[in-house]
Amino acid sequence: MEPHMPLSVLRCIDCGHTHDLNDPVYVCAQCGGLLDVEHDLERLRPLISRELFDDRLRHLEPPFNSGVWRYKELVFPAAPDEMIVTRGEGNTNLYRAPKGLAAWVGAERLQLKHEGENPTGSFKDRGMTGGMTHARMVGANSALCASTGNTSASMSSYAALAGIQALVFFPEGNIAMGKLAQSVAYGAVNVQVQGDFDACLDLVRQACRTFGIYLLNSVNPFRLEGQKTIVLELIQQRRWRAPDWIVLPGGNLGNTSAFGKALHEMQQLGLLDRIPRIAVIQAEGSAPFYQSYREGFAARHSVKAHTIATAIKIGNPASFYKAKRTLEWTKGIVESVSDQEIVDAKAMVDASGIGCEPASAASVAGVKKLIAAGVIQPQEEVVALLTGHMLKDPGVIIDYHQETLQGFNSPYANRLRTIKPTLDSVESLLRSARVTAG
Ligand SMILES: *Cc1c(COP(=O)(O)O)cnc(C)c1O
Ligand SMILES: [Zn+2]
């Protein structure tokens, strides 16, 4: 073992060119390809075991009380503990789907991994703790991201903790209220850009290159290292038994990419009994990855994105090729669902008592569709990812249940009622609402 050899390098997924972890690059300097953080698994192998990760569940202090840093050897082994920017992220519940929801989906063994239970309400915190720790290690003063909302909420929080100035570009008029409120409250400089998310991301990449600002979108490979722990944690929660399927929504495809890398590494390290298949679910109006998948990846598509699920309203996914690799590593598949299917699945997840934001419900809508199509068998073990918290997008909830959501039906509406302040009104209410007295 050579002590001066780095434990991890940045490696281009296209040409294999390597860069030092501290090089200020987000794409390959040689060919422009996406970069992986590549860990020296042979050197790490003797350190890593299921027992190590189980033992760390007893930790009450940072960094190992975090559901990301518990797996530090597979996330960022070289990060000095005192540099780690953490809010104890992860440690999210893996629910068994309540009966009514499971029956509606048609799944007998459905579990829900609720990443909306992270500190700022989405899985983005898992990536941000990795990215912000790297930003601090390289001495960044400011960080920039393009965001449909959750990345900005997360980055603003972690930047405040790290004492780094946060700068956020939003697509104008396309951000859910809960997310915008967080970003403002955490003290970021918030900028509406007159363009869609894809235009924002282009601008961010150019601005970071030109002005030397630290980039915190998911092309930053340190974010994906943190997001890998969703898979590590859910499999650990199942006592290291992998499910048949892991189903998740796909937007920019960072999470899809991280999941494939996690499973690939876990398999190499002997942490897996079998490799679960990944199913990526896109919204019909924002489904370039699905289109390419359908054509056997003959071409890389991009579209002008439309969907009510703003977190996956992305027309040109940055992590396209890493996500394609995930499909190869996991015999993965891609499906698309309509916005109506998304809002109905959301209403069912919400009414089950668990709740999630619209984009998250795409995974549940996808499981339902894939079971109906015979691709997933009803008795197979499925973990569907809920990516964000219910309160991120209250506007969609109120409109759906008031039946005022433009262009949608509300078959599962729970309408707000108004009555006069009299007992007679209460009596007729009880009759009409079929509320059982007593
Ligand atoms: C970011 C996000 C997604 C999309 O994840 P990608 O990694 O961009 O595919 C889905 N749901 C929610 C709630 C998100 O915040
Ligand atoms: Zn390259």
Write up what this structure looks like.
The chain has a six-stranded mixed beta sheet, sandwiched between helices. Strands 8-7-6-9 form a four-stranded parallel beta sheet, sandwiched between helices. Strands 2-1-3 form a three-stranded antiparallel beta sheet. Helix 5 (124-137) crosses helix 9 and helix 11 crosses helix 13. The protein contains 17 helices and 13 strands. The longest helix is centred in the middle third of the chain and has 15 residues, at 197-211. A hairpin with a 5-residue loop joins strand 1 and strand 2. It has a domain at 94-121 and 223-401: Rossmann fold (3-Layer(aba) Sandwich). The mean pLDDT is 96. It is globular and about 80 Å long. It has 438 residues and is an alpha/beta fold. The structure holds pyridoxal-5'-phosphate and zinc ion.
